[in-house]
């Protein structure tokens, strides 16, 4: 069990607390400090069963700057997620080859 975690994010802290309250001790990956590789992003998308765009924090100013006026392919979006991990939605729990974005928190709990 691994939690892609940003300790500065309240939703990420809530997810960690909820897991710990239920007796789980996930491996924490601070993905901003330890970014995912291209292969890891592709695997994560498969585990989440979503498109690359669905993994993007689209309200993030950096996303608006990088995508403005462009038509981006899935490969382009994956490249941006690798180069700018700040754009990845959070928190994400990976457990038994499944993954869930914790927005809402119940999504994470549903894969346990």
UniProtKB/TrEMBL annotation:
Reaction it catalyzes: [glutaredoxin]-dithiol + arsenate + glutathione + H(+) = glutathionyl-S-S-[glutaredoxin] + arsenite + H2O
Keywords noted in UniProt: Oxidoreductase
EC number(s) per entry: 1.20.4.1
Domain of life the protein comes from: Bacteria
Gene3D superfamilies for the chain: Glutaredoxin
EC top class, as a word: oxidoreductase
InterPro entries: Arsenate_reductase (IPR006659), Arsenate_reductase-like (IPR006660), Thioredoxin-like_sf (IPR036249)
Listed Pfam families: ArsC
An example molecular function term from Gene Ontology annotations: arsenate reductase (glutaredoxin) activity
Family: Belongs to the ArsC family.
UniProt-recorded name of the protein: Arsenate reductase
Species name: Deefgea tanakiae
């Amino acid at each position: 069990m691994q939690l892609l975690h940003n300790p500065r994010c309240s939703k990420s802290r809530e997810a960690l607390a909820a897991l710990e309250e239920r007796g789980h001790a996930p491996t924490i990956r601070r993905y901003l400090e330890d970014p995912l590789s291209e292969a890891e992003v592709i695997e994560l998308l498969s585990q989440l069963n979503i498109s690359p765009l669905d993994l993007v924090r689209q309200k993030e100013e950096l996303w608006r700057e990088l995508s403005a006026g462009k038509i981006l392919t899935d490969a382009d979006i994956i490249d941006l997620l690798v180069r700018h991990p700040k754009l990845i939605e959070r928190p994400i729990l990976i457990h038994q080859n499944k993954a869930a974005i914790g927005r809402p928190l119940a999504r994470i709990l549903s894969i346990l």
